[in-house]
């Protein structure tokens, strides 16, 4: 059945993912319940590319890349222990025809959700989001080809614990190294309303 719009109405999709976890659970040394999240890669073309693919499937009948919570019951456990986890699902292929491997950008964004990050792009008329400065805002990269997604912004890195910001409390002259090399972020709270602050990082076109 159609699983576009993030598979919101597709019970078959969730059932297929659970079967995949059932199979993985039989592998020696692999315990799905030991993980907070799991990434699925499906065959076929992604819905987000639109149109009709080479197999004749319309976008509404294909799977849209997404991340969501699900539950899974270990088939080896007679007590039916339930595991709650976050999954992502992306296509193995790029575009709507051919066998070119999918590019890294979409998976980068969805893994951000597994780490607990929210979307940072604009919704409707409520602003433009953070744009190209964060994979949670715009993941297509400088050439719009999904090969070179941006890394997470200072805000996202702090949220997931990748960096601890240095709070600047005094006026002065400060230096800051490239964020691609050193996990360094400055935070300024003084002069901003309660709960608001300025984050400073040095983004360089390196790496």
TrEMBL record:
Identification of the protein by name: Peptidase M6-like domain-containing protein
UniProt xrefs under SUPFAM superfamilies: Metalloproteases ('zincins'), catalytic domain
Residue intervals of the Peptidase M6-like domain: 36-156
InterPro entries linked: Peptidase_M6-like_domain
Domain of life of the native organism: Eukaryota
Single GO biological process annotation from the record: proteolysis
One Pfam short name: Peptidase_M6
Single annotated GO MF: peptidase activity
